[in-house]
C-alpha cells in the first residue's frame, strides 16, 4: 500500500481536527471531503497506469496537431503515427531549433505551425536565448490543464495538515507584459494565470481564500501591491493558517518589506486609512473593505513586535496560527532555507508542485517532508515525458541526443539522473526543458523526481539564470573599462550572495597590471562602473529583476589581493584535485572557499545605478 493510500485510510478512520479555525458545517465538510476523495482517487489512478496514460496522451497530442507544419517537416504522418514512429522521426530539440518557427508566430503567422489550435498568448520563460526571454506559445485549453494540477494540491495537503479552511497569506504578483508584433500578449505564466477568468472570477473555495484582495495581486506597481497585501495580511492576522509566496526569495522580500515599512503600516492601521502612496483606485477600494475602522490595539501590537530589532520567529509572532510556509525551496531556492527557518521559528516548508512556462509537471505527495527530501511525482496526463540520461561521472547529458537515448517515463531507473524532455498539447515536440532530475523512488508506477539543477546555470537569485558563457561575456565587457588604467582581470569567480535581502551577485576579481602604474591604480569610480557594465551585459530577466521587481540587489565586485587564485588552487589540490586538470571555478558555493576569498578582499564595489531595462524586447 502506498503512502498516500495509507494516508487516505487514516484520514477516514481518524478525521483530523483543528483548534485554530472554526469547524465547517457538517454538510460543507462532507462536500469538501468527497471532493478530496475524488481528487485522491484520480492521483491513484494516474500513478497506477503510467505507461497506458502516456500512450494515450501522445496519441491525443499527435491527433490534435496532425496538420502542423513542424510535424510534417519531421516527415511524420501524425494522423496515423504511433509511439515508435514518433520516436524515430521527431528529433530532440532545444529552443534555438524552434526559434524560427516561434518567430513567425510572434510576427503574426496564424497558420498551424506548431499547434493546430490557435496560439492564444506567449508565456515568457525565465530562461533566455541571446539575452532575451524565451517565448513559449500556448493555447487556450492549457490554462484548464494547469488548473487541474492546482486542484490536486489541497486534497494532498489535507492528509497531512488539519483545519485549513481559514485564510492564507500569499504574496502574489503580476509582472510586466508586452504585445508581440502579431498582437498576442507575452507574459510570465503566473501573470497569465492571475489575469485569467479562472483566477479573477473563481468561486469561493475555503482552501484558496486569500487575505490579499485580487485588485492588490493584479496591481502592476510592485510597491503598491506589496503594501496592500501586507496591510491586509496584518489586519486579518488571526485568520491566517498558512503563509507563502511562489519562491522562498519572494517571501523573504515580504519580510524585508515589513522591516522597512512597519511604521507606516502601523500608522495606517491606527488611523483606519490607507497611505496616499497607494494611488491605484481599485486597490484603495479593495483595502478599504478590510481596513474598515481604526484599530489602535493592532497598531500597538505591530509597533511592539517590529521596533525592538528581534526578527527571529516574526512570522509566527505576527501570524500566530500559521501551520506551514508554502514556498518553493528546491534548486536555487535551497539557499534561503536557513533564513526562512530563522524568520518562521522552524515552521515546516511545503514545496507543493513542479511546473514551468513550458508545462506543468507534477506535485509533491509528501508536502511537509524535509526540503532535502522533496520529490515530485510527475502526473502522466499533463504531457508526454521522456528522459535523456545524464552521465554520472561528468554530469553532462548525452551530447548528440537521438531517439535511442531517450527513456520513457515508466522506464526510468531509481537513482539515475536525467534531463527532462517534453511533448505538449500546445505544440512543443521532444523539447529539452533544461532541468536535471534524479529518480528518488516511485509512487505506485509513477517515478518521483528530485530536482537536481538547471542545466548550465551558474548564478541564480530568484527567477534569473546566468550561465558561464554569459558571465564570461559580462566580465570581458566590464574589463574593457580597466584597459585605459593599465589593468586587466587576471582571474575571476562568483557567488550568489543571499545573506542580505534581496540577494545579489558577487564577482571576485584578481587584477593584473598591464602598464607601469600597477593594477592598484584603478580608481573606485572605474571599478563601480565595472559593476554597472556587467549588469548591462546580463540578460533581460536579470535586468528586470533589478529594475522592475527589486528582487536582486546591485552587483558587487570584490577585488582580491594578488596570488589569491593560486591559494584557491592550492586548497583544491590539498583536497584531492588534480594539478593537471585544475581550472578556477567560475562559481563557488563551498563555505571554506568563500571564506578564503573574503579574507583576501582589498576593496568592494557596487553598481552605482540601475541597468537599462524596458518591457520591450530588443530588436535584432
Secondary structure elements and pairings:
Blueprint: H1 3-13, H2 26-48, H3 50-64, H4 69-73, H5 83-89, H6 95-106, E1 119-129, E2 132-139, H7 141-157, E3 167-171, E4 178-179, E5 185-187, H8 189-194, H9 197-200, H10 214-217, H11 222-235, E6 240-247, H12 248-271, H13 281-288, H14 296-306, H15 314-318, E7 324-328, H16 337-344, E8 349-350, E9 353-355, E10 360-363, E11 376-378, E12 384-389, E13 407-408, E14 417-423, E15 431-443, E16 446-454, E17 457-459, E18 466-467, H17 468-479, E19 487-497, E20 504-513, H18 524-537, H19 540-549, E21 556-560, H20 564-574, H21 591-599, E22 601-606
Overall shape: globular
Main sheet: which strands, in order across?
9-10-11-16-15-14-12-13
State the oligomer: single chain
Through-space gap between termini: 57 Å
Question: What structural category characterises the helix and strand content?
Answer: alpha+beta
For the largest beta-sheet, the strand count, sense and barrel status come to: 8 strands, antiparallel
Mean pLDDT: 89
What does this structure look like?
- With 620 residues, this protein is α+β, with helices and mostly antiparallel strands.
- 37% of the residues lie in helices and 21% in strands.
- It is built from 21 helices and 22 strands.
- The strands form 5 sheets. An 8-stranded antiparallel sheet has the order 9-10-11-16-15-14-12-13. It has a 4-stranded mixed sheet with strand order 2-1-5-4. The protein has a 4-stranded parallel sheet with strand order 3-6-7-8.
- A hairpin with a 7-residue loop joins strand 14 and strand 15 (431-443).
- The radius of gyration is 26 Å and the shape is globular.
Amino acid at each position: 500500500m502506498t503512502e498516500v493510500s495509507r494516508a487516505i485510510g487514516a484520514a477516514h478512520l481518524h478525521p483530523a481536527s483543528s483548534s485554530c479555525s472554526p469547524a465547517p458545517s457538517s454538510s460543507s465538510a462532507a462536500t469538501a471531503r468527497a471532493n478530496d476523495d475524488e481528487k485522491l482517487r484520480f492521483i491513484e489512478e494516474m500513478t497506477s497506469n503510467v505507461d497506458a496514460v502516456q500512450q494515450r496522451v501522445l496519441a491525443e497530442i499527435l491527433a490534435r496537431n496532425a496538420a502542423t507544419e513542424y510535424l510534417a517537416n519531421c516527415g511524420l504522418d501524425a494522423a496515423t503515427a504511433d509511439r515508435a514512429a514518433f520516436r524515430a522521426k521527431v528529433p530532440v530539440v532545444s529552443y534555438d531549433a524552434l526559434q524560427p518557427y516561434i518567430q513567425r508566430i510572434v510576427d503574426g503567422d496564424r497558420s498551424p505551425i506548431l499547434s493546430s489550435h490557435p496560439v492564444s498568448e506567449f508565456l515568457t520563460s525565465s530562461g533566455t536565448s541571446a539575452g532575451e526571454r524565451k517565448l513559449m506559445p500556448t493555447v487556450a485549453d492549457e490554462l484548464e490543464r494547469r488548473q487541474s494540477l492546482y486542484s490536486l494540491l489541497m486534497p494532498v495537503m489535507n492528509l497531512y495538515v488539519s483545519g485549513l479552511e481559514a485564510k492564507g497569506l500569499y504574496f502574489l504578483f503580476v509582472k510586466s507584459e508586452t504585445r508581440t508584433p502579431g498582437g498576442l500578449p507575452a507574459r510570465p505564466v503566473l501573470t497569465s494565470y492571475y489575469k485569467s477568468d479562472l483566477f479573477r472570477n473563481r468561486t469561493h473555495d475555503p482552501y484558496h481564500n486569500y487575505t490579499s484582495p485580487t485588485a492588490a495581486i493584479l496591481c502592476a506597481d510592485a510597491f503598491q501591491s506589496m503594501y496592500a497585501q501586507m496591510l491586509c495580511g496584518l489586519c486579518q492576522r488571526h485568520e491566517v493558517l498558512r503563509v507563502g509566496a511562489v519562491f522562498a526569495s519572494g517571501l523573504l522580500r515580504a519580510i524585508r518589506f515589513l522591516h522597512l515599512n512597519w511604521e507606516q503600516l502601523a500608522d495606517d492601521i491606527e488611523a483606519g486609512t490607507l497611505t496616499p502612496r497607494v494611488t491605484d483606485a481599485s486597490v484603495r477600494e479593495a483595502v478599504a473593505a478590510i481596513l474598515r475602522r481604526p484599530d489602535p490595539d493592532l497598531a500597538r501590537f505591530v509597533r511592539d513586535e517590529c521596533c525592538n530589532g528581534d526578527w527571529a520567529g516574526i512570522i509566527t509572532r505576527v501570524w500566530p496560527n500559521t501551520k506551514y510556509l508554502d514556498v518553493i525551496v528546491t534548486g536555487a531556492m535551497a539557499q534561503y532555507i536557513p533564513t526562512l527557518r530563522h524568520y518562521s521559528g522552524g515552521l515546516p516548508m511545503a514545496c507543493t508542485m513542479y511546473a514551468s512556462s513550458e508545462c506543468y509537471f507534477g506535485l509533491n505527495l509528501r508536502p511537509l517532508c524535509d526540503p532535502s527530501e522533496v520529490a515530485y511525482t510527475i502526473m502522466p496526463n499533463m504531457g508526454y515525458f521522456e528522459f535523456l540520461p545524464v552521465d554520472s561521472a561528468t554530469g553532462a547529458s548525452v551530447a548528440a541526443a537521438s531517439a535511442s537515448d531517450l527513456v520513457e517515463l515508466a522506464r526510468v531507473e531509481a537513482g539515475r539522473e536525467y534531463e527532462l524532455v517534453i511533448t505538449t498539447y500546445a505544440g512543443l515536440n521532444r523539447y529539452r526543458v533544461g532541468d536535471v532530475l534524479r529518480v528518488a523512488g516511485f509512487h505506485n508506477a509513477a517515478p518521483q523526481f528530485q530536482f537536481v539543477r538547471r542545466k548550465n546555470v551558474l548564478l541564480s537569485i530568484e527567477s534569473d539564470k546566468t550561465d558561464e558563457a554569459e558571465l564570461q561575456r559580462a566580465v570581458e565587457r566590464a574589463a574593457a573599462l580597466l584597459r585605459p588604467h593599465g589593468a586587466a582581470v587576471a582571474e575571476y569567480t562568483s557567488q550568489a550572495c543571499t545573506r542580505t535581502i534581496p540577494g545579489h551577485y558577487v564577482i571576485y576579481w584578481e587584477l593584473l597590471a598591464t602598464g607601469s602604474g600597477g593594477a592598484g591604480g584603478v580608481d573606485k569610480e572605474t571599478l563601480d562602473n565595472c559593476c554597472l557594465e556587467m549588469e548591462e551585459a546580463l540578460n533581460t530577466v536579470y535586468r528586470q529583476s533589478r529594475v522592475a521587481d527589486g528582487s536582486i540587489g546591485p552587483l558587487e565586485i570584490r577585488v582580491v589581493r594578488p596570488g589569491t587564485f593560486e591559494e584557491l588552487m592550492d586548497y583544491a589540490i590539498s583536497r584531492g584535485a588534480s594539478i593537471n586538470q585544475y581550472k578556477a571555478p567560475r562559481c563557488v558555493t563551498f563555505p571554506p572557499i568563500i571564506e578564503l576569498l573574503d579574507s583576501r578582499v582589498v576593496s568592494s564595489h557596487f553598481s552605482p545605478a540601475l541597468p537599462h531595462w524596458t518591457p520591450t524586447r530588443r530588436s535584432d
